[in-house]
Amino acid sequence: MKYMLIMRTPEMVEMPEDVDFTEVINAMGAYNESLIKAGVLLAGEGLAPPDEGFVVDFDATPPVVTDGPYAEAKELFNGFWMIQTSTKEEAAEWAKRCPLGPGMRLEVRRVNETEEFDQDNEYVQKEHEWREQLGTDRPVQG
Fold it and tell me: Segment Disordered: which positions (predicted)?
């Protein structure tokens, strides 16, 4: 099963001045290395600050691109990991090992597998082909 671990922080959180950023990077690197050595890491990226992003609002036709709104946001996504584990409990164990500090949260969501959809659907069949071409499907280790 694939799970996405979504790193969330309160909108206004800033890193305390007494925190050594090199230590943060090293802790994250060690966590990523443990995921790789266990064979569960599929992908992972940190996200740039929200002021470098934008929102596409589909309430209008055509959709409208804006710099926000982030005014209603209470939490921001700061990065993610995509892992593949044998069980939900294993995903939870990996999530608990993530070196995040107070005020930060990790949301864990199972990723739908193409096998869960109608296999006769044209686009489900194409999805299988695309994943094979991209090399994104791989068996669960462990």
Answer: 118-142
**Span 91-105, mean pLDDT?**
90
As for how many domains the chain has, the answer is 2
The residue segments making up the domain with residue 8 are: 2-111
- Predicted confidence (pLDDT) per residue in 61-75, tens digit: 998 888 865 656 677
pLDDT at 69 (0 to 100): 56
For 20, counting Cβ atoms within 10 Å of its Cβ (0-12 exposed, 13-18 middle, 19+ buried), the class is: exposed
128 and 106 share a domain? no
- Burial class, 3, CB count within 10 angstroms (exposed 0-12 / middle 13-18 / buried 19+): buried
